[in-house]
């Protein structure tokens, strides 16, 4: 019996490897990961410096996403693999997505306003849902924090909605900047963890 077999206890399985350990085992170059994180962080700072251009960029990305989603929806409807049970409805949904994507490209300013309003509604809905879920679980640990987070999200959603159209042109850019900064910081942190493990 080997030492590995002798020390393996089926009742206490080995802990799951961390994300950094999995990445190190896969053998990625941590330098490329760190470079990607640095580029995203720089992009986040540029988004904060010029939120209007960042908002236009976010609108273009959203338009491309809606276009791809619409084309895939129509294709799956014709193939009968969308699972909706109504081919006509699926095709109509795909066409609406494609038309919405085209409208975002044709009139990006209106697209910024529409997307910002959707973001505000999303924050408001998510905040209300968090508060409702927290109220349904009395006595649970962390209930107060969940209610507070829900109220903050709902308040942010209301502020975004009331900011349209006066302050909408820069809000999407600020959201994009926050996303790039957080994602970039996460990528850099993961790269440094991989470096320590390699």
- Total individual domains: 1
Distance between the termini: 30 Å
What fraction of the residues are assigned to beta strands by DSSP? under 5%
State the helix count: 8
Report Rg: 23 Å
Work out the helicity level.
over 70%
Mean pLDDT over the full residue set: 77
Shape: globular
Q: Count the E strands.
A: 0
Low-confidence runs of at least 5 consecutive residues = 1-8
**Content-based structural category:** mainly alpha
Largest sheet: none
- What is the chain-wise order of helices and strands? HHHHHHHH
Structural features, described:
This protein is an all-alpha fold. It has one domain (28-197). The chain has eight helices and no strands. The protein has helices at residues 3-7, 19-26, 30-49, 51-79, 87-106, 108-135, 143-163, 168-197. 81% of the residues lie in helices and 0% in strands. Mean pLDDT is 77; it is low at 1-8. InterPro entries: Acid_resist_chaperone_HdeD, DUF308_memb. Keywords: Membrane, Transmembrane, Transmembrane helix. Residues 1-20 are annotated as: Disordered. The chain crosses the membrane at residues 32-49, 55-76, 88-106, 112-133, 145-164, 170-194.
